[in-house]
Input
Amino acid sequence: MRGRTIANVGMVAAFTAVCLAGISFLAIGLGLEVPGKGGWRLNADFLAAEGVVPEADVALNGVKVGRVVAITGHPGSATVTMAINGDVRLRQDVKAMARPKTQLGEKFV
Output
C-alpha cells in the first residue's frame, strides 16, 4: 500500500512539472518578459500615435527587435515606451516612426 502511495505522489509531481513547463512555454511564446533576460527600455515622443497599441512590434530594418510596452498620451503628443532586446544597439540620432504593418491598420514602430 505504501509503495502505491509513493508511486501516485511521483506521478502527480511529474504531471505538475510537465504542466508548469507547458504553461511557461506558452507564456514566453505569447510575449511574457523573462526575468534576467536583459534588454532595455526606450521612450519615444510622437506627435500622433494612432493605431499603436501595447504589444505592437518594434522593428529595425524589418527585423523585430522589441515590443511596445505602454503608451502615455499628452496634449498634442504621445510617449511610447518600448522594450528593446539587449543585443540591439541604436545610434543616438535614431528616429522612430509608426508605420502600418497590415492593410487592416495594425501598426508597428
Summary: The two ends are 62 Å apart (CA to CA). The beta strands are 40-46, 57-60, 63-74, 77-84, 99-100, 107-108.
